[in-house]
Amino acid sequence: MKCIITIELGTNGVRVFAFNLSGRVIGSMKGYFPTFHTEPDHSEQDPEQIFITTLYVLKNLLNEFIHPKKYTVACICFSASMHSVLAVDKNGNPLGNAITWADNRAKKEAQELRYSPLGKSLYAATGTPIHPMSPLVKIAWMKNRDKERFRQASKFLSIKSYIIHQLTGEYKMDYSIASATGLLNIHTVTWEADALQYAGITAARLPEVAPVFASAGKLKKAYQQSLRLPSETKILLGSSDGCLATLGDGVKGIGKATITIEDSGAVRVMGPTVLKDEQMRFFNYLLTDDCYVSGGPTNNGGNIFEWFSRQFGDFTNPFDMENSLQQLIEEASKVPHGSDGLLFLPYLLGERAPIWNANARGMYFGLNIKHERKHFIRATIEGILYEIYSIGKTLGEQRNIKSLSVNGSFGAIPFCTQMIADMFNKPVRVRQQYHSVSFGAFLLSATEMGIYKSLDEAAQTVELPDIYKPNKQRHAVYADYFSIYEKLSVKLAEEFEAISDLQQKYAIAEAPVKEGKEGRKSKKS
């Protein structure tokens, strides 16, 4: 019996699934790794820790579900979050931590580039909005402010490219991850000359770009032996988590959109043409030569409710968002829709779509003497979903969206899914299991293997049996409060910048105080 394994490198963890060739889940496992916020606006991860975690989880899954049942692994397909940058030396060794999508250290470079003629030209060519998330801007920041690391870097990789290089020795990057760097021309599918010049690098310092169906090379013999996998096991580059979540929900056609809410979030559509926008609010990422996944991302999804739970809830398991949510959902459900006028701006990590403001900050607004803890809980959830609605509303200017699907551990909770249906005033469909990214990777692998003739055919097989219908009365309440939320997000731009500057100015390094000789003497006296 043959099976397909998918490896999803998420923001804070790795998920490994095994599917039989009919798409049924044989088994799954997950492991976690931390994100380090060493300074204001910095978000980093240890690439070696990610690799070790990936190997550990993969080997456990093979030993528990695959080898005992005599399955043959026909294919391993990768997916990953976008916009990470890792500088490596000539031997492929990391030069420090990887910089993640949430990192805003390059916000000054991004602001200068965004409003320049070059910025507009690069957006048209690459489809990636000019923002600190972009590897283009991250590399430029490194060139300007971390010159020694920039000089030593032989290549600039994504996390997925690094993991693949560790396993196979190949430096490769798929179309979709590459198209999210701000360095790839999505029309010619080659590295964009003007972007390379801005970043101060040549194409030789980037991985080879290849289709999502391409081979990532063969597993090194040491890993073939350790994992007990045959040399003929296919290793597919795969795609980005966003593109595969969209495919996994069957969103390939007119009138459909999908919402993903994990740590971050996004609203996406899929089609043969890019979204053109003078305000540069949307991304356009390649899945295949004639298929673009377009939409808008938010920095602030389930990670914000995790933050809230840590500070104000009975938070016991930092890696199980669904369980931690359920502890607070019952309390939040006792509050009327709209939280009795308490609004929450969830911009704890700055924001991407639709305001694209890395200086944006969080805020509770409308607080009065009658508000209680339960109001804060519901307002926090509503604020996260108002931001999702804000992206969808903007996307609706470009595409006629008739129906929605929702995936991701946060968005697939019934309390939240119903809230999304009410805010959008549209029916929302969900799968009984929320692993849309991994299922998209299965569909990609199955298409490459010839089980499906095309991704269109694969997408048509997706069934989303559960549907949430909107309530017009609740929609009217949310619409009234959202109008204030939307105005605040724009009106506070100057104040966001001012408080961000002060936070940088008065940031205190968390280094231990060193004791001198006098300090030691004073202890003896």
Please describe the structure with a list of short key phrases separated by commas or semicolons.
alpha/beta, seven-stranded mixed beta sheet, five-stranded mixed beta sheet, 22 strands, 40% helix, disordered C terminus
Question: What is the structure about, briefly put?
Answer:
The chain has 525 residues and is α/β, with parallel strands linked by helices.
Fold and architecture overview:
By secondary structure, the chain is of the alpha/beta class. The chain is 40% helix and 20% strand. It is built from 19 helices and 22 strands. The strands form 7 sheets. It has a 7-stranded mixed sheet, with helices on both faces. Strand 16 and strand 17 form a beta hairpin. Helix 14 crosses helix 17. The C terminus is likely disordered.
Furnish the topology, listing elements before pairings.
Elements: E1 2-9, E2 13-20, E3 25-32, E4 44-45, H1 47-66, E5 72-80, E6 86-88, E7 98-99, H2 107-114, H3 117-126, H4 135-145, H5 147-152, E8 155-157, H6 159-168, E9 172-174, H7 175-179, E10 184-185, E11 190-191, H8 193-199, E12 208-210, H9 221-227, E13 234-240, H10 241-248, E14 256-261, E15 265-271, E16 283-288, E17 291-298, H11 302-312, H12 321-332, E18 343-345, E19 363-365, H13 373-395, E20 403-407, H14 414-424, E21 428-430, H15 436-448, H16 455-460, E22 466-468, H17 472-491, H18 493-505, H19 517-524
Parallel strand pairs: 1-5, 5-13, 9-12, 14-20, 20-21
Antiparallel strand pairs: 1-2, 2-3, 4-7, 6-8, 10-11, 14-15, 15-17, 16-17, 18-19, 21-22
Helix pairs in contact: 4-8, 10-15, 11-12, 11-13, 12-13, 13-14, 14-17
